[in-house]
Specification:
two-stranded antiparallel sheet; single chain; Serine Threonine Protein Phosphatase 5, Tetratricopeptide repeat; 8 strands; alpha+beta; 2 domains; 11 helices
Amino acid sequence: MLFGPKPKSNQSIMKRISILIPAVAILAIGVSVRADLSVPDVSQLAVTKQRVGLTDVKIAYHRPLVNGRKIWGALVPLGEVWRAGAHMIPTADTWTVIFSKMATAWGSYTYSQAEDALRVTVKPRPNEMEEALEYEFEDLKPESATVTLKWEKLAVPFKIAISDDATVANIRGQMRGIGQFQWQPPNQAAQFCLTKKINLDEALKWVNLSIQNEERFENLTTKSELLKAMNKPDEAKKAWEQAIAKTTPIGLYSYGRRLQTEKRDADAMEIFKDVAKRYPETPFGHLANARIKSAAGDFAGAAEDAKKAQAVAISDAQKTSIKALIDRLQAKQDINK
């Protein structure tokens, strides 16, 4: 019988394997993964965003510095495509802003005019010194904004706007959500279309859905106005009568105030007359009279009505709010403006 080294047990072999596997794994990680060190960039990354209409507009870009260099006509050549978040062709008098369908290209090295989605000609303007390139949203409106590129002593503005069709499409998508089971969202959708005088047939379906969910003064009023806009006066009158049956002093008065915000002053005055007639001894009846007299220039009479409203107001907050109106009337200011 030959004697040699005693064979190692399975347990010993397994111990050796269990030690080697982690070593191999660590080696594999070291070979296959590269870790870059983050250091400050010369042109720092920036992100600016703004909601326009119902669309979120985001601009992600880097901010190179002037750093004592001549920018326009030197670092940035005139008459050539320059990548500045969007492609641009700067010239001495006008710029062409190019929106490309190709969003993954780096720089303007592979730019192709065939991939243009839109070209807009804009006029640059002088600006205060901006050391770092910047995009800023300016002249904000509910459905539009101006994006301005600012760098060195130049500003380049271009306007973006969201179409009513795009907004309606967005609303249509929202109406497939949980809002369809409540009264407010369908009513708001109908009101948007009513204000814009667009998509009235679908707006009527939305307001009917709102009424189906919960019949209220607000949505019955919307329906009445929609039917009037659709040249259906008899149906509009019926909806208005239903709305009046549901209203309260504050509800009808608030409706008049809403009409004022929509620049429908004559309609608002008719509502205030109705409030004063229906609810003469309430704070809102007196306030309605105050607004009618204020609109006619009778500030003294309006102030007296406002004082009556303050006397029967049911909360300190109401009294304080009415006091502010009295002060304006005593200063001969129209409280409707």
